[in-house]
Amino acid sequence: MAKQRLHKFLASSGIGSRRRCEELIAEGRVSVDGVEVHEMGIVVDPDTQEIRFDDELVRPERPVHFVVNKPVGYLCTSADDWGRRTVISLVKDRHRRRLFTVGRLDEDSEGIIFVTNDGEFANRVAHPRYGLEKTYELKLHGYLEDEQLDRVRQGVWLSTGKSQPMFVRLLKRSQQFSLVRVRIHEGKNRQLRRVFAKIGHAVARLQRVRIGPIELKGLKKGEARRLGKTEVDAILAACEKNRAEGGARALGLRSKASERFAGEKAGPAARRQAAGKKTTGKKKASAKKPARQDEAGPRRGRGRNEGPSKGPARKPAPGSKPGGPARRGSKPSGRSSKPGGPGRRKPN
C-alpha cells in the first residue's frame, strides 16, 4: 500500500469519516509505532508502520464496490436520525465495513447508484472534473413541444446559473404525459426536475438507468450486486478518458480567450496594424472650433444681465444711468437728480 495521510488511512479502514478521524487524532486516541499523534497531515506507510486506534491494531480494508437499484422512498445517507430507510441497508454485508453512496438520488427518484468504501473511486465517479456520463429516463406531465426540447438541449437559466447543454431524446408523448431520455455530465441538486419545471413540465417519475458503462438491466428494485474488477476498471478508464477530452477542450478555450485578451490589451492602433491598415504615430492637430455663441439668448450659468437678451433692446428709463439696469417696475418720475434741477414741488 502506498504512503498516505493518517486521517485518510483511518477513514479507508472503517474507523469513521475523514473529519471524525481528525477529531480522534486530536484527542490522542491514535498512535504510530507506539507514539501518540496529535498533529494533522502526517504521512504514514501502513506496510512498514504500526498504526493503532484505542490500542487496537488498524488494518486496511479491502475496497469493495456495489451497484444498487434504489427504489423510491430510500435516502442516500449512511444513517438517518429519524429511522428512515437508507440505500446502505440494501447491501447485505454492510456491517462488515464502512460504506457510503457515490453521489445522490433524492428520495422521490429511483435507479442505479454505487455504494463503496473506496474514496478514490467515489471521487472519480462523482467529481465534475471527470465528467462521467449519466443517463436518465423521465416521465413528464403534459405534451412536450419541440421548441421546449430545443431549450433544454441548449441550456436553461436557473437560479444557480445556466444549465449545461444536454442530450435529450423524445421517446413518447401524448396530451397527458411525455417520456424522454436525458444524458448529462453534471449532477447538481435536483437539476433535471428544476430544468423541466422551468419550461412548465413537472417530473412525474425520474429513473437513472446508466452510469458510464454500467447499466441497470438485470437488477430488480431494491437489489444490490458487487461490481467485478473488469467493471471497476471500465468505469475508471471512462473517467480518465473524459478528463483528458475535457481538459483538451478547456485548454483550447483558454488559448482562444488569451488571444482575444492580448488583442484587446494591445490597443486599437496595434489591432489596426495587425489587420493591415496604416497607422499614424500622431493625430493631426485640428484647429479648435470657436465656442458656439447663442444668439437667441444667454448661455446657461450666465447672470441675468450678461450677454445678449431675447427680443429688441430696451430703452433706458428716464432718470437712470446710461448702461445700468433699469429698476424693475420703476416709472419715470419726471424729476432730475442733477444739481440745480427742478426740486421737489412745494405744497401750496
Q: What do these coordinates show?
A:
The chain has 348 residues and is an alpha+beta fold. The protein has 3 domains: 4-57, RNA-binding S4 domain (Structural Genomics Hypothetical 15.5 Kd Protein In mrcA-pckA Intergenic Region, Chain A), CATH 3.10.290; 62-132 and 212-265, Alpha-Beta Plaits (2-Layer Sandwich); 133-211, Alpha-L RNA-binding motif (Alpha-Beta Plaits). It is 25% helix and 20% strand. It has 7 helices and 17 strands. The strands form 4 sheets. Strands 7, 8, 9, 10, 13, 14, 15, 16 and 17 form a 9-stranded mixed β-sheet that branches. Strands 3-2-5-6 form a 4-stranded antiparallel β-sheet, with no helix packed on it. A hairpin with a 3-residue loop joins strand 13 (167-173) and strand 14. Helix 1 (6-12) packs across helix 2. The longest helix is centred in the C-terminal third of the chain and has 38 residues, at 229-266. It is globular. The model is unreliable at 250-267, 277-288, 293-298 and 301-307 (pLDDT under 50).
